[in-house]
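Checklist before submission:
- one chain only
- standard amino acids only
- sequence pasted in full

Submission:
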Amino acid sequence: LVHSVSFWPIPALLSWWGFLKLDREMVDQLRVEGVSIIQSSLFLCRLNLVPISVSMLLVVIFSLGDIGAAELLQVNTFPVLLYTELNLIRTLGPVIRMSAPLLVFMAVGIAIWTSLRDRIRIETETFEPLAAQDRWISPAYSRWLLSLLVLVGPGTVLATESVQIVRDLSTIHLPLLTECLSASIWTGIGAVLLGALFLQCGLLASGNRSVAWTIDCTSFLLFAIPAPVLALGLLKMFSSMGRIALPLLDSFWILSLACAIRFYWVAWSLVQSGRDRIPQSLEDRMKTEGLSAWQRTRHIFNPLLRPQIMAGLTLVWALSLGEVTLTRILQPPGVQTLAARTVNFMHWGHDGMVAAGLVTVALLELLPLLVYIGWKSVWGRIQ
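Returned file contents:
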Protein backbone atom coordinates (compact mmCIF):
# COMPACT_ATOMS: atom_id res chain seq x y z
CA LEU A 1 0.00 0.00 0.00
CA VAL A 2 2.83 2.40 0.87
CA HIS A 3 4.59 1.66 -2.41
CA SER A 4 1.34 2.12 -4.34
CA VAL A 5 0.78 5.54 -2.77
CA SER A 6 4.41 6.56 -3.24
CA PHE A 7 5.02 5.30 -6.78
CA TRP A 8 1.67 5.63 -8.59
CA PRO A 9 2.85 8.86 -10.31
CA ILE A 10 5.44 6.86 -12.29
CA PRO A 11 2.96 4.87 -14.44
CA ALA A 12 0.65 7.90 -14.56
CA LEU A 13 3.45 10.13 -15.85
CA LEU A 14 4.89 7.72 -18.40
CA SER A 15 1.44 6.81 -19.69
CA TRP A 16 0.61 10.49 -20.11
CA TRP A 17 3.93 11.02 -21.89
CA GLY A 18 3.15 8.10 -24.19
CA PHE A 19 -0.29 9.48 -25.00
CA LEU A 20 1.34 12.76 -26.08
CA LYS A 21 3.30 10.82 -28.70
CA LEU A 22 0.16 9.34 -30.29
CA ASP A 23 -1.24 10.77 -33.49
CA ARG A 24 -3.63 13.58 -32.57
CA GLU A 25 -5.72 12.96 -35.71
CA MET A 26 -6.32 9.35 -34.65
CA VAL A 27 -7.54 10.48 -31.23
CA ASP A 28 -9.88 13.01 -32.84
CA GLN A 29 -11.16 10.33 -35.24
CA LEU A 30 -12.13 8.13 -32.30
CA ARG A 31 -14.15 10.99 -30.85
CA VAL A 32 -15.86 11.73 -34.18
CA GLU A 33 -16.88 8.08 -34.59
CA GLY A 34 -18.56 8.15 -31.19
CA VAL A 35 -16.40 5.48 -29.57
CA SER A 36 -17.14 5.18 -25.86
CA ILE A 37 -14.63 6.38 -23.28
CA ILE A 38 -13.96 2.84 -22.07
CA GLN A 39 -13.37 1.47 -25.58
CA SER A 40 -11.14 4.37 -26.60
CA SER A 41 -9.19 4.09 -23.33
CA LEU A 42 -8.56 0.37 -23.88
CA PHE A 43 -7.51 1.02 -27.47
CA LEU A 44 -5.12 3.80 -26.48
CA CYS A 45 -3.68 1.68 -23.65
CA ARG A 46 -2.98 -1.10 -26.15
CA LEU A 47 -1.13 1.35 -28.39
CA ASN A 48 0.63 2.77 -25.32
CA LEU A 49 1.62 -0.63 -23.94
CA VAL A 50 5.38 -0.02 -24.11
CA PRO A 51 5.60 3.04 -21.80
CA ILE A 52 3.10 1.41 -19.44
CA SER A 53 5.32 -1.70 -19.28
CA VAL A 54 8.37 0.46 -18.64
CA SER A 55 6.58 2.23 -15.79
CA MET A 56 5.67 -1.11 -14.21
CA LEU A 57 9.34 -2.13 -14.36
CA LEU A 58 10.34 1.08 -12.58
CA VAL A 59 7.75 0.54 -9.85
CA VAL A 60 9.07 -2.99 -9.28
CA ILE A 61 12.65 -1.72 -8.98
CA PHE A 62 11.71 1.04 -6.54
CA SER A 63 9.68 -1.40 -4.44
CA LEU A 64 12.38 -4.09 -4.36
CA GLY A 65 15.05 -1.62 -3.30
CA ASP A 66 13.05 0.27 -0.69
CA ILE A 67 14.33 0.08 2.86
CA GLY A 68 13.15 3.29 4.51
CA ALA A 69 9.43 2.46 4.47
CA ALA A 70 10.14 -1.13 5.54
CA GLU A 71 12.10 0.04 8.58
CA LEU A 72 9.51 2.63 9.54
CA LEU A 73 6.75 0.00 9.27
CA GLN A 74 9.01 -2.65 10.89
CA VAL A 75 8.58 -5.15 8.04
CA ASN A 76 11.40 -7.61 7.27
CA THR A 77 11.91 -7.26 3.51
CA PHE A 78 14.96 -8.50 1.60
CA PRO A 79 16.74 -5.09 1.60
CA VAL A 80 16.27 -4.87 5.38
CA LEU A 81 17.71 -8.36 5.90
CA LEU A 82 20.56 -7.54 3.55
CA TYR A 83 21.36 -4.35 5.45
CA THR A 84 21.26 -6.25 8.77
CA GLU A 85 23.62 -8.91 7.42
CA LEU A 86 25.92 -6.20 6.10
CA ASN A 87 26.21 -4.67 9.56
CA LEU A 88 27.29 -8.07 10.91
CA ILE A 89 29.87 -9.16 8.31
CA ARG A 90 30.99 -6.01 6.41
CA THR A 91 32.39 -8.10 3.53
CA LEU A 92 31.27 -7.81 -0.05
CA GLY A 93 31.37 -11.49 -1.10
CA PRO A 94 28.58 -12.89 1.12
CA VAL A 95 26.42 -9.83 0.45
CA ILE A 96 26.71 -10.34 -3.31
CA ARG A 97 25.90 -14.05 -2.94
CA MET A 98 22.80 -13.16 -0.94
CA SER A 99 21.82 -10.68 -3.64
CA ALA A 100 22.42 -13.09 -6.54
CA PRO A 101 18.72 -13.74 -7.34
CA LEU A 102 17.99 -10.03 -7.23
CA LEU A 103 21.02 -9.23 -9.40
CA VAL A 104 19.86 -11.78 -11.99
CA PHE A 105 16.48 -10.10 -12.03
CA MET A 106 18.16 -6.73 -12.52
CA ALA A 107 20.18 -8.11 -15.44
CA VAL A 108 16.96 -9.28 -17.07
CA GLY A 109 15.48 -5.87 -16.28
CA ILE A 110 18.33 -4.17 -18.15
CA ALA A 111 17.58 -6.20 -21.27
CA ILE A 112 13.86 -5.48 -20.97
CA TRP A 113 14.44 -1.77 -20.39
CA THR A 114 16.81 -1.26 -23.31
CA SER A 115 14.58 -3.16 -25.74
CA LEU A 116 11.47 -1.29 -24.61
CA ARG A 117 13.20 2.10 -24.70
CA ASP A 118 14.38 1.45 -28.24
CA ARG A 119 10.79 0.77 -29.26
CA ILE A 120 9.61 4.03 -27.66
CA ARG A 121 11.91 6.17 -29.83
CA ILE A 122 10.24 8.35 -32.43
CA GLU A 123 11.75 10.41 -35.20
CA THR A 124 10.42 13.74 -36.45
CA GLU A 125 10.82 15.20 -39.94
CA THR A 126 12.16 18.72 -39.39
CA PHE A 127 13.74 20.76 -36.66
CA GLU A 128 11.16 23.57 -36.60
CA PRO A 129 8.13 21.46 -35.47
CA LEU A 130 10.33 19.83 -32.84
CA ALA A 131 11.39 23.18 -31.40
CA ALA A 132 7.82 24.52 -31.43
CA GLN A 133 6.51 21.33 -29.83
CA ASP A 134 9.26 21.25 -27.21
CA ARG A 135 8.38 24.73 -25.97
CA TRP A 136 4.97 23.40 -24.99
CA ILE A 137 5.53 19.73 -24.18
CA SER A 138 8.86 19.83 -22.34
CA PRO A 139 7.92 22.47 -19.74
CA ALA A 140 4.57 20.72 -19.24
CA TYR A 141 6.38 17.41 -18.90
CA SER A 142 8.71 18.91 -16.30
CA ARG A 143 5.84 20.44 -14.34
CA TRP A 144 4.00 17.12 -14.29
CA LEU A 145 7.17 15.39 -13.20
CA LEU A 146 7.85 17.81 -10.37
CA SER A 147 4.27 17.94 -9.18
CA LEU A 148 3.69 14.17 -9.29
CA LEU A 149 6.99 12.48 -8.48
CA VAL A 150 8.19 15.11 -5.99
CA LEU A 151 5.00 16.57 -4.59
CA VAL A 152 2.96 13.41 -3.99
CA GLY A 153 5.44 11.73 -1.64
CA PRO A 154 6.35 14.79 0.48
CA GLY A 155 2.76 16.04 0.26
CA THR A 156 1.48 12.79 1.76
CA VAL A 157 4.05 13.07 4.54
CA LEU A 158 3.07 16.67 5.29
CA ALA A 159 -0.61 15.77 5.43
CA THR A 160 -0.21 12.73 7.71
CA GLU A 161 2.67 13.70 9.99
CA SER A 162 1.60 17.27 10.77
CA VAL A 163 -1.14 15.90 13.02
CA GLN A 164 1.46 13.82 14.89
CA ILE A 165 3.61 16.93 15.40
CA VAL A 166 0.71 18.81 16.97
CA ARG A 167 0.02 15.88 19.29
CA ASP A 168 3.63 15.48 20.44
CA LEU A 169 4.75 19.11 20.25
CA SER A 170 6.27 18.99 23.73
CA THR A 171 8.58 16.08 22.79
CA ILE A 172 10.18 17.82 19.80
CA HIS A 173 13.71 19.17 20.33
CA LEU A 174 14.63 21.40 17.42
CA PRO A 175 18.42 21.41 18.03
CA LEU A 176 18.51 17.65 17.35
CA LEU A 177 17.00 18.32 13.93
CA THR A 178 18.75 21.54 12.93
CA GLU A 179 22.23 20.11 13.54
CA CYS A 180 21.55 17.60 10.70
CA LEU A 181 20.17 20.14 8.24
CA SER A 182 23.53 21.30 6.93
CA ALA A 183 24.67 17.73 6.22
CA SER A 184 21.45 16.97 4.33
CA ILE A 185 21.55 20.19 2.32
CA TRP A 186 25.22 19.88 1.38
CA THR A 187 24.75 16.22 0.46
CA GLY A 188 21.86 17.16 -1.82
CA ILE A 189 23.76 20.07 -3.40
CA GLY A 190 26.81 17.89 -3.99
CA ALA A 191 24.67 15.16 -5.57
CA VAL A 192 23.03 17.70 -7.89
CA LEU A 193 26.39 19.16 -8.96
CA LEU A 194 27.88 15.73 -9.61
CA GLY A 195 24.67 14.64 -11.35
CA ALA A 196 24.87 17.68 -13.64
CA LEU A 197 28.48 16.82 -14.45
CA PHE A 198 27.57 13.20 -15.20
CA LEU A 199 24.70 14.31 -17.44
CA GLN A 200 27.01 16.55 -19.45
CA CYS A 201 29.44 13.65 -19.86
CA GLY A 202 26.56 11.43 -20.97
CA LEU A 203 25.41 13.97 -23.55
CA LEU A 204 28.96 14.37 -24.84
CA ALA A 205 29.15 10.62 -25.43
CA SER A 206 25.58 10.16 -26.66
CA GLY A 207 26.56 10.62 -30.31
CA ASN A 208 27.92 7.07 -30.31
CA ARG A 209 25.06 4.54 -30.11
CA SER A 210 27.18 1.83 -28.50
CA VAL A 211 28.49 4.24 -25.86
CA ALA A 212 24.95 5.49 -25.15
CA TRP A 213 23.77 1.88 -24.79
CA THR A 214 26.65 1.17 -22.37
CA ILE A 215 25.74 4.24 -20.30
CA ASP A 216 22.11 3.10 -20.23
CA CYS A 217 22.94 -0.40 -19.02
CA THR A 218 25.59 0.64 -16.49
CA SER A 219 23.54 3.44 -14.94
CA PHE A 220 20.47 1.19 -14.80
CA LEU A 221 22.45 -1.51 -12.99
CA LEU A 222 23.92 0.96 -10.48
CA PHE A 223 20.42 2.27 -9.80
CA ALA A 224 18.77 -1.13 -9.56
CA ILE A 225 21.26 -3.09 -7.43
CA PRO A 226 20.61 -3.08 -3.67
CA ALA A 227 21.92 0.06 -1.99
CA PRO A 228 24.03 -1.92 0.56
CA VAL A 229 25.93 -3.60 -2.29
CA LEU A 230 26.63 -0.25 -3.97
CA ALA A 231 27.65 1.40 -0.69
CA LEU A 232 29.97 -1.41 0.35
CA GLY A 233 31.51 -1.54 -3.14
CA LEU A 234 32.29 2.19 -3.02
CA LEU A 235 33.66 1.84 0.50
CA LYS A 236 35.99 -0.99 -0.52
CA MET A 237 37.14 0.84 -3.66
CA PHE A 238 38.03 4.09 -1.92
CA SER A 239 39.51 2.35 1.13
CA SER A 240 41.96 0.54 -1.17
CA MET A 241 43.28 3.91 -2.39
CA GLY A 242 44.79 4.68 1.00
CA ARG A 243 45.42 8.24 2.08
CA ILE A 244 44.44 9.69 -1.29
CA ALA A 245 40.76 8.97 -0.66
CA LEU A 246 40.69 9.95 3.03
CA PRO A 247 39.45 13.53 2.41
CA LEU A 248 36.57 12.09 0.39
CA LEU A 249 35.68 9.42 2.96
CA ASP A 250 35.73 11.94 5.81
CA SER A 251 33.36 14.46 4.19
CA PHE A 252 29.83 14.66 2.86
CA TRP A 253 31.19 14.25 -0.67
CA ILE A 254 31.24 10.46 -0.34
CA LEU A 255 27.47 10.57 0.30
CA SER A 256 26.94 12.99 -2.58
CA LEU A 257 28.96 10.78 -4.92
CA ALA A 258 27.05 7.66 -3.89
CA CYS A 259 23.68 9.37 -4.39
CA ALA A 260 24.75 10.86 -7.73
CA ILE A 261 25.90 7.45 -8.97
CA ARG A 262 22.76 5.66 -7.80
CA PHE A 263 20.19 8.19 -9.01
CA TYR A 264 22.00 9.23 -12.18
CA TRP A 265 19.93 6.81 -14.26
CA VAL A 266 16.70 8.49 -13.13
CA ALA A 267 17.90 11.83 -14.49
CA TRP A 268 19.59 10.28 -17.52
CA SER A 269 16.44 8.43 -18.61
CA LEU A 270 14.53 11.73 -18.59
CA VAL A 271 17.21 13.46 -20.63
CA GLN A 272 17.29 10.53 -23.04
CA SER A 273 13.54 10.80 -23.56
CA GLY A 274 14.13 14.25 -25.02
CA ARG A 275 17.40 13.29 -26.70
CA ASP A 276 15.63 10.55 -28.68
CA ARG A 277 13.13 13.08 -30.04
CA ILE A 278 15.81 15.07 -31.85
CA PRO A 279 15.20 14.38 -35.58
CA GLN A 280 17.65 12.41 -37.65
CA SER A 281 17.88 15.33 -40.10
CA LEU A 282 19.33 17.53 -37.36
CA GLU A 283 21.75 14.75 -36.36
CA ASP A 284 22.93 14.49 -39.98
CA ARG A 285 23.27 18.27 -40.23
CA MET A 286 25.46 18.40 -37.11
CA LYS A 287 27.71 15.70 -38.58
CA THR A 288 27.86 17.45 -41.96
CA GLU A 289 28.90 20.75 -40.37
CA GLY A 290 31.55 18.95 -38.34
CA LEU A 291 30.34 20.03 -34.90
CA SER A 292 32.36 18.54 -32.07
CA ALA A 293 30.73 16.70 -29.19
CA TRP A 294 31.21 19.75 -26.96
CA GLN A 295 29.64 22.08 -29.54
CA ARG A 296 26.64 19.75 -29.98
CA THR A 297 26.13 19.53 -26.24
CA ARG A 298 26.55 23.26 -25.58
CA HIS A 299 24.63 24.75 -28.51
CA ILE A 300 22.05 22.06 -29.35
CA PHE A 301 21.42 19.58 -26.55
CA ASN A 302 21.53 21.86 -23.50
CA PRO A 303 19.09 24.49 -24.88
CA LEU A 304 16.64 21.88 -26.20
CA LEU A 305 16.84 19.55 -23.19
CA ARG A 306 17.00 22.16 -20.41
CA PRO A 307 13.54 21.24 -18.95
CA GLN A 308 14.42 17.53 -18.81
CA ILE A 309 17.83 18.27 -17.29
CA MET A 310 16.33 20.48 -14.59
CA ALA A 311 13.59 17.93 -13.85
CA GLY A 312 16.14 15.12 -13.58
CA LEU A 313 18.39 17.10 -11.24
CA THR A 314 15.37 17.99 -9.10
CA LEU A 315 14.65 14.29 -8.70
CA VAL A 316 18.30 13.66 -7.78
CA TRP A 317 17.95 16.33 -5.08
CA ALA A 318 14.73 14.84 -3.67
CA LEU A 319 15.93 11.21 -3.76
CA SER A 320 19.29 12.13 -2.18
CA LEU A 321 17.63 13.92 0.74
CA GLY A 322 15.45 10.88 1.45
CA GLU A 323 18.20 8.27 1.04
CA VAL A 324 18.82 6.32 4.25
CA THR A 325 20.78 3.15 3.44
CA LEU A 326 23.74 4.79 1.69
CA THR A 327 23.99 7.38 4.45
CA ARG A 328 24.03 4.86 7.28
CA ILE A 329 26.71 2.72 5.63
CA LEU A 330 28.98 5.47 4.27
CA GLN A 331 28.34 7.94 7.10
CA PRO A 332 31.53 9.99 7.62
CA PRO A 333 32.59 11.00 11.14
CA GLY A 334 30.36 13.79 12.42
CA VAL A 335 28.13 13.77 9.33
CA GLN A 336 24.56 12.50 9.71
CA THR A 337 21.72 13.42 7.40
CA LEU A 338 18.26 14.24 8.65
CA ALA A 339 16.75 11.15 6.98
CA ALA A 340 19.17 8.83 8.80
CA ARG A 341 18.57 10.53 12.14
CA THR A 342 14.81 10.29 11.62
CA VAL A 343 15.12 6.51 11.27
CA ASN A 344 17.15 6.46 14.49
CA PHE A 345 14.37 8.39 16.23
CA MET A 346 11.97 5.71 15.04
CA HIS A 347 14.10 2.97 16.61
CA TRP A 348 14.23 4.94 19.86
CA GLY A 349 10.45 5.34 19.94
CA HIS A 350 10.35 9.16 19.62
CA ASP A 351 7.20 9.50 17.51
CA GLY A 352 7.14 13.29 17.71
CA MET A 353 10.73 13.59 16.50
CA VAL A 354 10.04 11.10 13.69
CA ALA A 355 7.08 13.20 12.51
CA ALA A 356 9.12 16.42 12.73
CA GLY A 357 12.01 14.86 10.82
CA LEU A 358 9.74 13.55 8.05
CA VAL A 359 8.04 16.91 7.64
CA THR A 360 11.39 18.73 7.52
CA VAL A 361 12.76 16.34 4.89
CA ALA A 362 9.55 16.74 2.87
CA LEU A 363 9.86 20.53 2.96
CA LEU A 364 13.48 20.31 1.82
CA GLU A 365 12.48 18.02 -1.05
CA LEU A 366 9.81 20.52 -2.08
CA LEU A 367 12.24 23.46 -1.95
CA PRO A 368 13.12 23.45 -5.70
CA LEU A 369 9.44 23.26 -6.61
CA LEU A 370 8.59 26.14 -4.27
CA VAL A 371 11.46 28.22 -5.68
CA TYR A 372 10.27 27.47 -9.22
CA ILE A 373 6.69 28.48 -8.42
CA GLY A 374 7.88 31.69 -6.74
CA TRP A 375 10.17 32.56 -9.62
CA LYS A 376 7.42 31.96 -12.19
CA SER A 377 4.95 34.11 -10.26
CA VAL A 378 7.45 36.98 -9.89
CA TRP A 379 8.51 36.72 -13.53
CA GLY A 380 4.87 36.71 -14.64
CA ARG A 381 4.21 39.94 -12.72
CA ILE A 382 7.29 41.59 -14.20
CA GLN A 383 6.17 40.73 -17.72
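Reviewer check: The longest helix spans residues 174-205.
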